[in-house]
Amino acid sequence: MRKLLLTALLLCTPALIFAASPGTKLTVQVNSSLSGKGIDRASVIVHFTEGRNINLKKIRTTWETKTNQQGNVSIPEIPQGKITIQIIAENYQTYGNVYELKDPEQTIEIKLNPPQAQYSEDSKTKEVKPLK
Question: Could you write out the DSSP letters of every residue in 31-91?
Answer without folding.
Answer: EETTT-PBPTT-EEEEEETTS--EESSSEESEEEEE--TTSEEEEEEEESEEEEEEEE-TT
